[in-house]
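Practice problem 4.
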């Protein structure tokens, strides 16, 4: 994932930070990661008794998403703030299902959430996802 939500399926540009779906460990410095790898509009907020990172981006189809990633004490979770969606892959409270267990790092939560948004956009347009979801 690029910093503004771009999806790279091959070699990524060498001159920008990227996020990968498979995180090896939980990031000790989420603030540093958010500042250097997540969209420039990312802010730290407290929402519904959870503290985490709110960020917005546009998918390749042009739909804007605002998501909230937070650590729940065990794993990272991501909630959809906008657009308002219901149905497949959205759990109560707006939480996105990103696999059998939550991502282990903010990096993985961000990368999977951007892929989820691209797949959701394809589904909303009546198309199949442009990739096979890794979760």
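Answer key:
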């Amino acid at each position: 994932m690029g910093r503004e939500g771009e999806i790279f399926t091959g070699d990524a540009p060498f001159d920008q930070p990227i996020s990968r779906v498979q995180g090896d460990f939980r990031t000790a410095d989420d603030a540093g990661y958010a500042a250097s790898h997540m969209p420039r509009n990312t802010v730290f907020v407290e929402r519904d008794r959870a503290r985490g990172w709110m960020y917005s981006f546009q998918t390749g189809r042009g739909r804007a998403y605002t998501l909230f990633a937070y650590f729940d004490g065990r794993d990272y979770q991501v909630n959809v703030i906008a657009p308002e969606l219901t149905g497949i892959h959205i759990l109560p409270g707006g939480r996105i299902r990103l696999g059998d267990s939550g991502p282990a790092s903010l990096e993985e939560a961000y990368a999977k959430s951007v892929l989820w948004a691209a797949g959701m956009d394809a589904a909303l347009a009546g198309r199949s996802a442009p990739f096979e979801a890794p979760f």
